[in-house]
Amino acid sequence: MIKLFGISNCDRVVKARKILSSASVEFEYIDFRKGNFLTSHIEDWLSKVSINEIISQRSQAWKKLSPQQQEALLSSPDLQFIVENPTLIKRPVLLTDDEIFFGFNQAKYDEVSSRV
Q: 66-103: per-residue pLDDT in tens?
């Protein structure tokens, strides 16, 4: 099953949900802030991609971290810290059976929608 992770008031997440819904794609939506986002999700992602693909270094949350905190997060990710600060994650996150995408890319969402 396809899973979409994000924050409900994020414009890119809203757009992704709309594309999937309008294409009648069945997906489970997991809101980072609703308590059902777990460190195990990030562990799964890290088995597929590097932490650099997960963390949004353009986010305000990232910019508020000290250089030492940024370095530590990239070299030895604190998964609980990321769960507690989900705006560090590139949004939305789209997880299919065989792929994972971070951030919004219209072409990727159209491709996923057409495959289902």
A: 999 999 999 999 999 999 999 999 999 999 988 999 99
CATH code assigned at 53? 3.40.30.10
Whole-prediction pTM: 0.92
Q: How many domains does the chain have?
A: 1
Strand order in the sheet with 27-31: 27-31, 2-6, 93-95, 100-102
Q: Would you list the DSSP string of 49-64?
A: S-HHHHB-TTSHHHHH
Helices 11-22/106-115 angle, 10° precision: 30
Q: Which residue segment(s) compose the domain that 90 sits in?
A: 2-115
DSSP code, position 71? H
Is residue 77 within 8 A of residue 42, CB to CB? The reply is: yes
